Amino acid sequence: MTIDWSWLADHTDDLTTLTVSHLQAALSAVFFGLLISLPLAVIAHRIRPLRGLLLGLSNVLFTIPSIAIFVLLLPVSGLTRTTTVIGLTIYTLVVLLRNTVEGLDSVPVKTKEAAKAMGTRPLRTLLTVELPLALPVIMAGVRIATVMSISLVSVATYIGDGGLGQLFTDGFQRNFPTPVIVGVVLTLLLALVADALLVAIQYVLTPWTRRRA
Amino acid sequence: MYELFKNLGNWLVTGDRWSGTDGIAHRLAEHLQYSLLATLVAAAIALPVGLLIGHTGRGAFLAINLSSFGRALPTVGLVVLVFLASGLSMWPVYIALVALAVPSIVTNTYAGMTAVDQDVKDAARGQGMRAHQVLFQVELPLALPLIMTGLRLALIQVVATATIAAYVSFGGLGRYVFDGLAQRDLVQVLGGAVLVAVLAVVLDLALSALQRVLFRHRPA
C-alpha cells in the first residue's frame, strides 16, 4: 500500500476545498451544539428533576449510529450541508451538555452565596461568576466535541457531503489507497491542530487557573 | 411523520421480519457478536495497559493523548484502508472497532487508577503488601467504577459503529441502514437505527446492573 505522490500533487486544490468544507461542518456543529446545550445545562443544573431526563436523552441520541442520523434527516433537510450540521450537532450535545452541567456543579456553593450576598442578580451571577468558573470543564467538553465532530464529518459522505470523507468513498470505489490515506492523515491533523488551538484559547480565557497548573 | 412511525411499527412487528438469515433476530445476533468480540479484544488490550500506566505512573502522556487520537481517527477511513490492504474479510471491521474502543478503556482505567488516594496506597504498602497485591487488592477495586464507565462507553460506541460492517458487505443491523439507503427505503433505515439504539441502551443498562450486583459494597 503505497502513496501515489503524483495524485497528491494533482489534487492540492481539491484537497484544500475539501479540508475547508470539512472544518466548516465540524465547527458549525460545535457552535450550534454550544448554543443549544448552554441553556439546557443551566436548566439541568438548576432543576434537579429535569437533570436525569436531559442527560439520559442526550445519551440515547448518542447511541444512534451517525449514518442513521444523517439518513433520517434526509426527509427534513435533504442532501444538503444542513443535514450534516444537524447530525453532527446532535452528537456534540451529549459531551457539551454533560460537561457544562458538571462545570456548573463544580462552582463552590459559597462562591454563589457570596455573589448573592453582594446583591448580584441570578442572571448576572450566572454570566459573570458561574460560567467563567465552569469554563475549564466546559472547554474540556468543547475540545472533545470538536475532535469528535472533525472525525465524524466523514460519515456524511454517505449522503454526498462529508468533506474529507469523500476521499474514503473515492478510494473505496476505485480500489485506490492514496486518497484514503491522505484523508485519514488530514482528518487527524485537523483534529490535532483544532485541539491545540482550543487549549491556547482556554489558556488566554482563564488566567486565574495558571498559577495552580 | 406520523405515517413514518406507523410504518416503522409495522416493520418492527411483522412476524416474518424476525426470522431467516436476513431477519432481525439473525442480524441482532451478528451485531451482538461483532460488538461483544471487539469490546472483549479491546478490553484485553486496554485494561492491562491502563492498569500498568496508572500503577507505575509511566506513560501518562500516552494515556491522555491516546483518547483524543482515538476520537480523531475517522472510523470510515480506517475501515476502507484496512479493507484495501486485507481484501474482503472481517478484519477491517474488527480492527476499526477495537481501535475505537481501546482509547476510552485505557483513559478511564488510567483515570480510575490515578484517582486512588496516595495515602491509601502508602498504607497498603506500609502493611507489607507487595506491589502486585497493592495493584490487585487495593487500586483495582477502588478504580473499578471508573473502569466500568470506560467499558460501558466503549461498548456503546462499538455497538453504534458496528453498523459499518454492512458497508464492507457483512451483516449486523447496519444491513438495514445501508440496504435501506440503497433502496431509498426510509422505514428500513429507521428500523435499523432504532434497533441499534435499543441494543446499545439495553447493553449499557445490563452492564450497569452487573456492576451493581458484582460490586454491591461500592457505590458506582
Automatic annotation (TrEMBL), chain A:
Domain called ABC transmembrane type-1: residue spans: 19-198
UniProt keyword list: Membrane, Transmembrane, Transmembrane helix, Transport
Entry annotated with the keyword Transmembrane helix: yes
Alphabetized InterPro entries for the sequence: ABC_transp_perm/SBD, MetI-like, MetI-like_sf
Membrane topology: Multi-pass membrane protein
PROSITE patterns: ABC_TM1 (PS50928)
Superkingdom, taxonomy of origin: Bacteria
Protein's recorded name: ABC transporter permease
Lineage: Bacteria, Bacillati, Actinomycetota, Actinomycetes, Kitasatosporales
TrEMBL record, chain B:
Matches recorded under SUPFAM superfamilies: MetI-like
Chief location: membrane
Mode of membrane association: Multi-pass membrane protein
Domain ABC transmembrane type-1 positions: 28-211
Residues annotated as transmembrane: 32-53, 60-85, 91-111, 153-174, 186-210
Superkingdom: Bacteria
Swiss-Prot/TrEMBL keywords: Membrane, Transmembrane, Transmembrane helix, Transport
InterPro entries linked to this entry: ABC_transp_perm/SBD (IPR051204), MetI-like (IPR000515), MetI-like_sf (IPR035906)
Location of the protein in the cell: Cell membrane; Membrane
Key word tRNA processing present: no
Family of this protein: Belongs to the binding-protein-dependent transport system permease family.
Annotated PANTHER family: GLYCINE BETAINE/L-PROLINE TRANSPORT SYSTEM PERMEASE PROTEIN PROW, POSSIBLE OSMOPROTECTANT (GLYCINE BETAINE_CARNITINE_CHOLINE_L-PROLINE) TRANSPORT INTEGRAL MEMBRANE PROTEIN ABC TRANSPORTER PROZ
Name listed for the protein in its UniProt record: ABC transporter permease
